[in-house]
Specification:
By secondary structure, the protein is an alpha+beta fold. It contains 3 helices and 9 strands. The strands form 2 sheets. Strands 1, 2, 3, 4 and 5 form a 5-stranded mixed sheet that branches. Strand 6 (94-98) and strand 7 form a beta hairpin.
C-alpha cells in the first residue's frame, strides 16, 4: 500500500493496487487475483483509495472516505509515481494527477521552505464516490457531484515513501503477471 501521511501523522492518503488485468484466465487453485482484460494490450489496475485519520486511543487509522474498488488506467499508476519523482527532484514545482476514470485526483505542490529537508508540500486529494453511489442506488451522478476533497501538508520524507510504495506495488503486480 502506498501511503502519504500529513506533516503531523494524523491523516493519510492510502492507495492500494490490488490486481493488474491480464488476458489469461487464472489457473485452477491459483491464489492470485486475475482480472481478464477486454484489451490485454492495455491492462488497467484495480485499486482502492482512502483518506484516513489516526485514532490515538487505539493507534489505528480509520477511513474518512474510502473507494474500495476503482479502476486506474493503463498508465495512471506510472504517471502518478513519475510525477512524485519529478517533484522530489525539483524538476517541477507541482503537478496534478487524475485517474482515467476520474474517480481519483491528486494535486501536489512544493511550498516555500528553508532547505530540502524542511520543504513542505501542499496536498489536495479528491475521491469521487459518484460511480460507487450510482451502483448502490441506481441513480446516476455527474462527475464531481459526489467528490470528497481533502487538503493537508506533508514533508519530503513521507512523499519519498509514498512514491516508493507506488513503485513497489507496481513491481509486485508486474512480477506476479
Amino acid at each position: 500500500m502506498a501511503v502519504l501521511f500529513d506533516a503531523r501523522g494524523a491523516l493519510r492518503l492510502a492507495i492500494s493496487l490490488a490486481a493488474l488485468e491480464t488476458g489469461e484466465r487464472p489457473a485452477r487453485g491459483e491464489r492470485l487475483l486475475r482480472v481478464v482484460a477486454d484489451e490485454p494490450a492495455k491492462p488497467r489496475l484495480l485499486a482502492a483509495a482512502s483518506v484516513d485519520w489516526l485514532d490515538r486511543r487505539d493507534g489505528e487509522f480509520w477511513p474518512f472516505v474510502r473507494r474500495p474498488a476503482l479502476w486506474l488506467g493503463p498508465d495512471d499508476a506510472d504517471g502518478l509515481a513519475h510525477g512524485v519523482e519529478r517533484l522530489l527532484r525539483d524538476e517541477v514545482a507541482g503537478f496534478a494527477f487524475r485517474s482515467a476514470g476520474g474517480e481519483l485526483a491528486l494535486q501536489l505542490g512544493r511550498m516555500p521552505g528553508e532547505d530540502m529537508a524542511r520543504t513542505a508540500y501542499a496536498v489536495e486529494a479528491g475521491i469521487d464516490l459518484g460511480g460507487l453511489l450510482a451502483e448502490a442506488s441506481g441513480a446516476e451522478h455527474e462527475p464531481g457531484e459526489a467528490l470528497s476533497l481533502f487538503r493537508f501538508t506533508t514533508r519530503r520524507a513521507p512523499l519519498v515513501e509514498f512514491g516508493r510504495g507506488l513503485r513497489e506495488e507496481l513491481s509486485a503486480l508486474r512480477a506476479a503477471k
